[in-house]
Structure formats: structure tokens, C-alpha cells
Amino acid sequence: MLAFLSTAERAAGQCRGLSDGSTCAVGRCTSSTCRPVDLGGFDLEAAGSEASWVNWTNCTNCTPSTFQRVAVGSRFGVRLTTSALPCSGACQFPGGYALSPAVSLTAGHRTVLVRLEAVASATGAQLKLIGQDSAGADVIQQDLAVPQVAGGAPQTRFGVFVMPATVTAVRVRLEQPTPNAQLTVDGVQFFSMP
Length: 194
Fold this sequence. Notes:
By secondary structure, this protein is mostly beta strands. The protein has one helix at about 1-10; strands at about 25, 25-30, 35, 35-40, 55-60, 65-70, 75-80, 95-100, 105, 110-120, 125-130, 140-145, 155-160, 170-175, 180-194. Helices cover about 5% and strands about 50% of the residues. Strands 4, 6, 7, 10, 13 and 15 form a six-stranded antiparallel β-sheet that branches. Strands 5, 8, 9, 11, 12 and 14 form a six-stranded antiparallel β-sheet that branches. A hairpin with a 2-residue loop joins strand 1 (about 25) and strand 2.
């Protein structure tokens, strides 16, 4: 975190007089301000936006979890809902899961900033940031806890993660290990910086 703050401090004022797109300490100049590179994300507003995610329930003979687009206040998001867990027999890591499509990192950038709006109806839910190499193999997984507020609105969360040099893309996995619980997400945004 100290390295992040030090880099951000170096970036202050660095873009005065430079054109948009010029390289600076944390990414690129935009309107005379040095900003991390916006990699995009998942705003989940469009109908069918959840179809690019992969959803599964870990364990056999379970009632499958659901993953669907839902209204979240005046916006739309996605909701991962579990049923009774574990189901039958021994099982490791029972729960409902949803995996996003991959988002490519900017070459030479190792720090990933994640902004999401999420809420869970029970404890244990998390967002896992997964760094993958150019072959699509997982290199690193890091957790970001999701706040528990039964019946509450999604809350904004930020995470700063340093990726190994071999990571070329990131994706997120939503995890809800609690039976009969929900994990609601209203947008995920990625930024990168050197």
C-alpha cells in the first residue's frame, strides 16, 4: 500500500501541459490529471450481460445455485443465490460460484485496482481476483471480502492488488459458500497502473 501511495504522490501534477494519453507515474494523462488506466469492467446494466459469466454449484447432487440479472434500486446487477449446502456426500468448498470473462492488463502494469458495489445476505461471501498468464492458467488469487447487510443495498468496495509479472489478464469469481444466501453485485470496474 505504501508503494501505491508513493506512486500516486509522484503522479500529482505530472500531466500539466501534456496531451491526453501521455504516460505518467500511475498510467495515462487525462484532462491534465495522471490517472490509472481504465481497463473496463462489468456494469451489468444491459439485458443478457450476465450471460458471459460462468455459474456453477460446487458439490454433487445439489440444488444448483442461480445467477441472474436483477433490479438493484434504479439500476441492474447480478445475484448469485445458493440453496441448501452441502448436498450429499463429502464435499470440499460447497457453494455457488460465478466467474467473469477475462480482462486484459495493460503491458507493464502490475498493480490492479478493483472497484465494485456488492452486498451479501450472509457471512463468508467474497470476490476473488484471479490473475492469469497468457495461456489462461491461474497464477494468483486474492480475496476481497463482501459486506454482509441482509436486505441492504450494495456498498462500494475498493481493492489494490499487485500481480506477478507473468499475469496478462484478470477475472473475478463471486463466491457464496453459505446455504440459502445471496451475493448481489452492481458493477465491477478494473484499473491498472505500473
